């Protein structure tokens, strides 16, 4: 299946204007024949770990706009927005099918405490999986890449690919590449990170959206500006990697859990 990471800089705190920009992406991706578009973290507003603006529910501007575009262009889409939640909003990714239906939602589990995101947002507590054209996907968001346990859980769910919307800063770009390739190789799955670009009031970003295959090999990488990055996901490549090198057979999950319990004591 052909997919696209839409590495575009949103218009700061302006979902309506950013969605107009996103429609141009849908037009181009439709011509290119891709079945799925993924946008960066909080793409419609720009990522801000402490913002209390543009907090929406599923009837708000961002979700309804993406649902309309998905249906109009018959392309599935993954977006990210600030979701209304009590007592604090959630940083939520949403997968929308080509008919405009909501396939899955994922609230960011690992909030970025160095940027005080944990003070302004509520952490998620569940996984999100969905299927498109027989390919099983999972969702994670940005800082989640630093926590391999989450991707291990998706491996247990037998996903073929995890898509990671992100606002990963230029200053730590080397870890972005390292973690994407590591999470892919560890779990014998595709990992597709879609990053933002440009400078915001929060930080500077340099794109480098990339996808790694089940061997951890980089198969697609964007530059540092606005770019549509295309890549292919083949579930048979995942299944072959897991069959030919069945590393899962040698895991000691019960022992790991026991050792973790002893450490906590």
Describe the protein in words:
With about 260 residues, the protein is an alpha/beta fold. It is built from 7 helices and 14 strands. Helix 1 (about 15-30) runs parallel beside helix 2. It is globular and about 50 Å long. The model has no long low-confidence stretch (mean pLDDT about 95).
- Please report the distance between the alpha carbons of the first and last residues: 47 Å
Q: What Rg do the Cα atoms give?
A: 18 Å
For the sheet with most strands, the description reads: 6 strands, mixed
Could you spell the SSE succession in H and E letters?
A: EHEHEEEHEEHEHEEEEEEHH
SSE inventory with pairings:
Layout: E1 2-7, H1 15-32, E2 36-38, H2 61-73, E3 76-83, E4 90-96, E5 102-107, H3 117-120, E6 129-132, E7 135-139, H4 148-156, E8 161-166, H5 173-187, E9 190-195, E10 197-199, E11 204-206, E12 210-212, E13 218-221, E14 227-232, H6 235-244, H7 253-264
Parallel strand pairs: 1-2, 2-3, 7-8, 8-9
Antiparallel strand pairs: 1-14, 3-4, 4-5, 6-7, 9-12, 10-11, 12-13
């Amino acid at each position: 299946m052909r997919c696209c990471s839409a590495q575009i800089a949103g218009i700061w705190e302006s979902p309506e204007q950013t969605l107009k920009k996103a429609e141009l992406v849908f037009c181009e991706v439709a011509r290119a024949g891709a079945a799925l578009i993924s946008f960066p973290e909080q793409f419609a507003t720009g990522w801000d770990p402490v913002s209390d603006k543009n907090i929406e529910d599923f009837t708000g501007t961002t979700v309804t706009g993406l649902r309309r575009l998905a249906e109009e262009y018959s392309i599935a889409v993954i977006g990210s927005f600030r979701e209304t939640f009590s007592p604090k909003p959630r940083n939520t990714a949403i997968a929308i099918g080509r008919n405009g239906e909501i396939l899955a939602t994922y609230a960011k589990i690992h909030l970025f405490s160095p940027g005080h995101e944990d003070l302004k947002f509520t952490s998620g507590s569940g996984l999100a999986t969905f299927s498109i054209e027989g390919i099983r996907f999972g969702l994670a968001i940005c800082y989640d890449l630093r926590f391999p346990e989450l991707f291990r859980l998706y491996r247990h769910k037998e996903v073929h690919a995890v898509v990671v919307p992100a606002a990963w800063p230029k200053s730590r770009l080397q870890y972005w590449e390292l973690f994407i390739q590591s999470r892919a190789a560890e779990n014998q799955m595709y990992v597709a990170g879609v990053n933002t670009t440009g400078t915001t009031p929060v930080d500077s970003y340099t794109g480098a959206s990339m996808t790694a295959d089940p061997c951890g090999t980089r198969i697609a990488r964007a530059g540092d500006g606005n770019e549509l990055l295309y890549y292919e996901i083949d579930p048979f490549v995942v299944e072959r990697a897991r069959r030919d090198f069945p590393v899962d057979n040698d895991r000691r999950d019960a022992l790991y859990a026991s050792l973790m319990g002893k450490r906590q004591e």
